[in-house]
Amino acid sequence: MKDNSVKPEEKPVPVKADVEKKAVVLQKEDKPVADKIKVGHVHMSGCTGCLVSLADNYGGLLTILDKYADLVYGLTLADVRHIPKMDVALVEGSVCIQDKISVDEIKETREKAAVVVAVGGCACYGNITRFARGGQTNQPQHESFLPVGDLIKVDVYIPGCAPTPQLIRNVCVMAYLLLKGNKDQQDLAKKYLTPLMQLAERGTEACGCDLMYDVVNQGLCMGCGSCAAACPVRAITHEYGKPNVNREMCIKCGACYAQCPRSFFNFDVITGFEGILEAIDGALK
């Protein structure tokens, strides 16, 4: 009698064929390659806080580098030894005039870049580096620092110590739209960048008195306290919600003026504010 308790050994079912039948082939989305602009980050004498602020854009920065800009130079972000030609140069920090290499590099940056952007209070106005003394910096002989605009022509200022990540991101997007966008996008970019270009035209000198003339006396101060927080020598206090500048203590470094969000107030931006935000949001999607 045949024993049915022992079943014959079953052959394994070929899994590969079934998987191949069921597998869904995911095709990579086809999208046009953007006509990118070339951007470089040039680091002079500073604390690197502006670079940290740039990096704090996280996904927004990755989107910009993926769609709109090629980073062609940056001491900490790109392995390039010499300054190449570029569309936009983001310059951080002030220039030590005892350091010949730094002086040569900032001049070379002006020659190689179509647009030079001073990023942060040190690059725009000198900030605390104006108050440097021998022995307080890296080397005792490095004791004289100048904002970038005292040595070369600067096209755009991004004020702040450090500037907000959003401000740096927005300027990068607007620079792309200005150089590569259609007419409507270029008009929006001009509206956004005009106040920052006017700051560059204004010059490299700024102090607490300028803050009083241009902001407080014009009724623009909102009492946020940014100026007092930025002052490195505590020359600014708040009296009844408004800044009070001690002129004897002020070292005229421009930190307060660079940090004030109303120092570059402009009505042209207000009228196009909604369109500007839509353009930025659309670019970062």
How would you portray this structure in words?
- The protein has 285 residues and is of the alpha/beta class.
- It has 2 domains: 35-204, NADH:ubiquinone oxidoreductase-like, 20kDa subunit (Rossmann fold); 206-266, 2-Layer Sandwich (Alpha-Beta Plaits), CATH 3.30.70.20.
- It contains 12 helices and 9 strands.
- Helix 6 (165-180) packs across helix 7 (183-202) and helix 7 packs across helix 12.
- The protein is globular.
Summarize the structure.
The protein is α/β, with parallel strands linked by helices and 285 residues long. 40% of the residues lie in helices and 15% in strands. The protein folds into two domains: 35-204, Rossmann fold; 206-266, Alpha-Beta Plaits (2-Layer Sandwich).
Question: Mind sketching the topology for me?
Answer:
Blueprint lengths: L14 H8 L14 E7 L5 H7 L3 H9 L1 E6 L11 E7 L2 E2 L3 H13 E7 L1 H5 L19 E2 L9 E3 L6 H16 L2 H20 L5 H9 L9 H5 L5 E4 L2 E4 L9 H5 L7 H5 L1 H12 L1
Helix pairs in contact: 6-7, 7-12
Keywords:
about 280 residues, alpha/beta, Rossmann fold, Alpha-Beta Plaits, 2 domains, five-stranded parallel sheet, two-stranded antiparallel sheet, 12 helices
User: What's the name of the CATH homologous superfamily of the largest domain?
Assistant: NADH:ubiquinone oxidoreductase-like, 20kDa subunit
Would you list the SSEs in sequence order as H and E?
Answer: HEHHEEEHEHEEHHHHEEHHH
Main sheet characteristics: 5 strands, parallel
- At the first level of CATH, the class of the largest domain is Alpha Beta
Mean of pLDDT? 83
Q: Please identify, by name, the CATH architecture of the largest domain.
A: 3-Layer(aba) Sandwich
Shape: globular
